[in-house]
Specification:
six-stranded antiparallel beta sheet; Rossmann fold; 26 helices; 4 domains
Length: 621
Amino acid sequence: MCGLISLYFKNGEVSQAVAADTMKMAGSMLDTLRMRGPDDYRLVQMGSAFLGHSRLSIIDLQTGSQPIYNEDGTIAVLLNGEIYNFQELRVELEKLGHHFQTISDTEVIVHLYEEHGEDLFSKLNGMFAIVIYDSRSKILLAARDRIGEKPLVYCELPEFFAVASEVKALLKIPAVSKEIDIDSIALYLNSMYVPAPASIFKKIKKLPPAHYLKLVGKKQIIRKYWDPQQEIKWKWQEKDIEENFLELFLDAVKIRTYSDVPFGVFLSGGIDSSAVTAFMSKTYPSPIKTFTVGFTQEIDERPYARMVADRYQTEHTELIISDRIEDVVKQVITYFDEPFGDSSAIPTYLISREARKHVKMILTGDGGDELFAGYHSYVDQKYQLGNRVSTKAYKTINQLSLKSCGKGILEGLYPRTANFGRAFKHWHWVRSIFHEEELKTTLNQSFAGVADFFQKQHWLGVHGEDALSISYAFDLNYYLPDDLLKKVDMASMFASLECRAPFLDYRLIELSLQIPPNIKIKNDCLKSLLKSSLHNYLPSEILYRPKTGFGAPVASWLKNQLKEMTFDLLGQSCKIESFIDRKAIQQCLDLLYRTDLIKDYRVSQKVWLLFVLESWMRNYL
């Protein structure tokens, strides 16, 4: 895994004096990404573009330094990530007459661009953020993988555009404003994260998954290159779906184990990571290294992980997170370049740090819940709106502001959609921490509608005519890339560890979108298809145990180890009072510390979000 930066000057000409200053600035930008790539570091100027790369060596350890060029040096490529089908692509390109100087996956991208131009991205199976500079046409392309495993952010300045792996790199540009976006504060308090294309800063944007940015002179163009399976077939027999899943999943695991360095599996004892462990044991000859994290308090899945580890005879490591977490919390909040409220980032970093002592690369079970219906909220949504809503009705509803989606309006338009507005708002309410109505009194500035933001932006589209399919789509568009995958990327990169997720193979995503909801959930049994597919690989104790979320004991932390720090951060005259009403802050503290509501998730989570936001602002502003 790596970190990358690029600066693209609009006018195409850069004086020697400007170039010298720019190289110095670019060097400071790249320094912020050293944890992403501690093995190699390179910064070059190529005409009107400056390209920088810090590398964590996984494939082609000796000759894989970047940028990598085509034969005549006119095209340069930076890659953060891995291209899993690069060997097949290389064979095809060699047949077309292309010559390779390395065995790295990055060089394949150079020659794919020569053959296919901007259409190359849809040919890649991988997780990636890519920058391509073509000095012949003075065009810069920056692309992000289909589901958003690898981050890419950008901003525009008067003289140039800047692209980077992380926001903190862009903040090293003196001209980049640190003005906070109040709409992003609202999104963060509502959802625990800031979803693409927004960032916490007004002038910095995130490139959405499955999109690429094209820079030509002063113009910037953003295009989507993948929209999975627009037409929903739903004609397969369940047995055929199971066979297709098993075949694709085995291949997804297999192609992610190609590496020149040791690797292992994050094993929680849940279905997804256990399935990865089982299938990896079929493809990898040596004993697998597995890693599990547990707490001294009530959250502990180690016995289930141990059961799977014993079955597949893995070299198993357990990490117990002790009560002394204050310093780690500070470190993780500081490393994240935006306020990020998912507390599971803490154990994710700690297990990544432990795993890095043994391996350089890890397989994870991320994506299984989103693709195959693993959340209890999906069952709730099923009962909120049981009947299908026609595509025409959904498109009409989607054009309306949620504020106008009242029962009377919907019934007048489409009688069968009378409950749609309530169902959507219920789904959004279930996933929210500070509800939108609360934010109106919590924030001391006006902000755009939070629910409207989520309703209007669908990078990967909405597939299906029922409430469950709509729920899946929102998770694929937002929760998965902007919460789960950002967490894994940032926490693992903080430990200089690469993570790969077989469930997020785009072929499995396309398959999952073809599966009817009544096959994914049967008789209110979550992941019904996955469980029936895996019955020969995993014990029933794993397949049918109650789902346990991967989180941290936030309420206990705030009541005990972090109590003093919380009052230091959220006492009088804290920075977040620029955006958040003091009375609202105090009310959150009172609910947590002066009542017995410690078991109410939202009570502790609200204080945690404020805690993280204040701590983050003190570091970045």
